[in-house]
């Protein structure tokens, strides 16, 4: 027999995991692992909203990874002879129009939801709903990325809880904040955006963010006593404090030292 979840049951799961009215949440989801959800992504979003209430805050990553250098595309790659045409023709990032890529059905719907505000970063945007949501996502420019002054830093300042509903630990967007200030490699990125009222293909320098180590590091993080682990159908779920970015940073420093 298939497993069914409803808004009522999802709210109950969240409350049992310690989610309370007024909480700030950075949410990652894998809808397929939750079982059959009555109402699909709409139900997941509205369960989260009900769990935190109007004084709470919900953020999700709404990245558009296909607005990037086509020479680096791997899943799937495109022919070399297409690269310049893509650079010439890729639509400029528009918070209201640009679809997410690889984020899942829940964030894709969430970015379009009433009273949800999406940030202006053309590749690594986030979307937020709730108290101070518009201010939280403001000023998210290409040079800010995931670091100081970004919406991620503001979520840390709000003592946000990181919520995983079946999604892998290497998808923990907030942990990218840990990659700043540790002398990480810098590389050029490319994307289409609006600049001075016209569409341009922009190249910019930024830390080479890399979530690959987050899975292994996260397996140790979730053993902490202040992390709540629970299961919904096939989904292993976590509620993790935002201050875990600090041990993640320490682990990244140790890893890089070992690799040298």
List keywords for this structure.
two-stranded parallel sheet, 260 residues, 11 strands, alpha/beta
Estimate what percentage of residues fall within beta strands.
15-25%
Which overall shape is indicated by the principal axes computed on the Cα atoms? globular
- Show unreliable segments: none
Structural class: alpha/beta
Distance between the termini: 52 Å
Tell me the radius of gyration: 18 Å
Tally of domains: 1
**Can you give the helix content as a percent range?**
25-40%
Order of helices and strands: EHEEHEHHEEHHEEEHEEH
What does it look like?
- The chain is an alpha/beta fold.
- It has one domain (4-259).
- It is 27% helix and 23% strand.
- The chain contains 8 helices and 11 strands.
- The chain has helices at residues 7-16, 40-52, 83-89, 105-110, 133-137, 151-157, 214-221, 245-259, and strands spanning 4-5, 24-29, 36-37, 57-61, 116-118, 126-130, 161-165, 186-195, 198-207, 228-232, 235-241.
- Strands 5-6-4-2-7-11-10 form a 7-stranded mixed sheet. The chain has a two-stranded parallel sheet with strand order 1-3. Strands 8-9 form a two-stranded antiparallel ribbon.
- A hairpin with a 2-residue loop joins strand 8 and strand 9.
Question: Secondary structure elements and their pairing?
Answer:
Blueprint: E1 4-5, H1 7-16, E2 24-29, E3 36-37, H2 40-52, E4 57-61, H3 83-89, H4 105-110, E5 116-118, E6 126-130, H5 133-137, H6 151-157, E7 161-165, E8 186-195, E9 198-207, H7 214-221, E10 228-232, E11 235-241, H8 245-259
Parallel strand pairs: 1-3, 2-4, 2-7
Antiparallel strand pairs: 4-6, 5-6, 7-11, 8-9, 10-11
Helix pairs in contact: 1-2, 7-8
